[in-house]
TrEMBL record:
<feature type="transmembrane region" description="Helical">
    <location>
        <begin position="6"/>
        <end position="22"/>
    </location>
</feature>
<keyword id="KW-1133">Transmembrane helix</keyword>
<protein>
    <recommendedName>
        <fullName>Type II secretion system protein GspF domain-containing protein</fullName>
    </recommendedName>
</protein>
<keyword id="KW-0472">Membrane</keyword>
<feature type="transmembrane region" description="Helical">
    <location>
        <begin position="228"/>
        <end position="247"/>
    </location>
</feature>
<feature type="transmembrane region" description="Helical">
    <location>
        <begin position="68"/>
        <end position="95"/>
    </location>
</feature>
<keyword id="KW-0812">Transmembrane</keyword>
<feature type="domain" description="Type II secretion system protein GspF">
    <location>
        <begin position="120"/>
        <end position="240"/>
    </location>
</feature>
<dbReference type="InterPro" id="IPR018076">
    <property type="entry name" value="T2SS_GspF_dom"/>
</dbReference>
<feature type="transmembrane region" description="Helical">
    <location>
        <begin position="253"/>
        <end position="278"/>
    </location>
</feature>
<dbReference type="Pfam" id="PF00482">
    <property type="entry name" value="T2SSF"/>
</dbReference>
<dbReference type="GO" id="GO:0005886">
    <property type="term" value="C:plasma membrane"/>
</dbReference>
<keyword id="KW-1003">Cell membrane</keyword>
């Protein structure tokens, strides 16, 4: 009776997920077609081809963290238990946070590279004989290193505004801290008549050295990150090995008292170990 109830709950969760991914977006597309007045709209639920097309389209929109829920549903069906479904649902926000943090780190690195390119392009434009304002306009257009604040900096450079202040405001973006050095070079060159190109060369060299140092540290920590990932997937490999040997690990873990105790203790130790390893790697990377 418990197994049938668990199977029914897992099937209900899977059906709800399919409805959220397919039916709701099908209705939205049908409403858009009706309001637009174009095309032929068929009535009734979507066919299998349409559902598969919707799933393929939504695969790019949804994050990879939803695969945790799919894996939980599959394990719930195989083990006739709602515990994997609950664990998969609980893992979705955690994996989303990890994905967003990775995207933010990649965006920060791209912005830092764009700032370096901006400094080099600006130095080249100044050496070519252009005025600082015109050189900044050309360099900002070519490199895009100012990010969201590019419009304010371009307007200040074009209309004689406070360019150092605009650069300092743009430097508040993660990864664009090098613009503070550019603002200082600009202020010294304008106020004291110092050479802007020389200061930009020194700033470009310093930013490149800092980037190379971060890349070297990232390469040195690659082994530690790989070890952390390996330790995280070892329990799954153990379950697969046990299933291959015919030990039925899912039935033992999900339907016996000792198995549930081992599952709770193992999950707690696994989470603590991964958290500790990630914290050590992050602490080493922040040095």
């Amino acid at each position: 009776m418990i197994g049938e109830t668990s199977m029914g709950a897992a099937l209900i969760c899977f059906g709800a997920l399919v409805w959220l991914l397919g039916g709701r977006h099908y209705g939205m597309r049908r409403a858009r077609l009706l309001l637009a007045g174009g095309g032929v709209v068929t009535s009734g639920p979507p066919s299998w081809d349409q559902a598969l097309a919707e799933l393929r389209r939504l695969r790019g929109r949804l994050g990879a963290e939803w695969w945790a829920l799919v894996a939980g549903l599959l394990l719930g069906l195989l083990g006739t238990s709602v515990i994997p479904v609950a664990a998969g649902a609980a893992g979705v926000p955690v994996l989303r946070r990890v994905r967003l943090a990775r995207q933010a780190r990649c965006a920060r690195e791209r912005r830092a590279d764009a700032v370096i390119a901006l400094c080099g392009a600006l130095a080249g434009e100044v050496r070519a004989g252009r005025q600082p304002g015109e050189a900044l306009l050309r360099a900002a257009r070519d490199s895009g290193g100012l990010g969201e604040a590019q419009a304010a900096v371009v307007a200040a450079a074009r209309f004689g505004g406070d360019v150092p202040g605009a650069l300092a405001a743009a430097a508040r973006q993660p990864g664009a801290e090098g613009l503070l050095g550019l603002a200082a070079c600009w202020r010294v060159a304008v106020d004291q008549g110092a050479g802007l190109a020389a200061g930009l060369d020194r700033l470009d060299a310093a930013l490149r050295a800092e980037r190379d140092q971060r890349a070297d540290l990232h390469a040195q920590l690659a082994g530690a990150r790989a070890t952390t990932v390996l330790l995280a997937v070892l329990p799954a490999l153990g379950l697969l090995l046990g299933a291959a040997m015919g030990a039925h690990p899912l039935r033992v873990l999900l339907h016996t008292g000792a198995g549930l105790g081992c599952l709770a203790a193992g999950s707690a130790f696994e989470g603590a170990g991964v958290w500790w390893a990630v914290r050590i790697v992050r602490g080493a990377g922040a040095v």
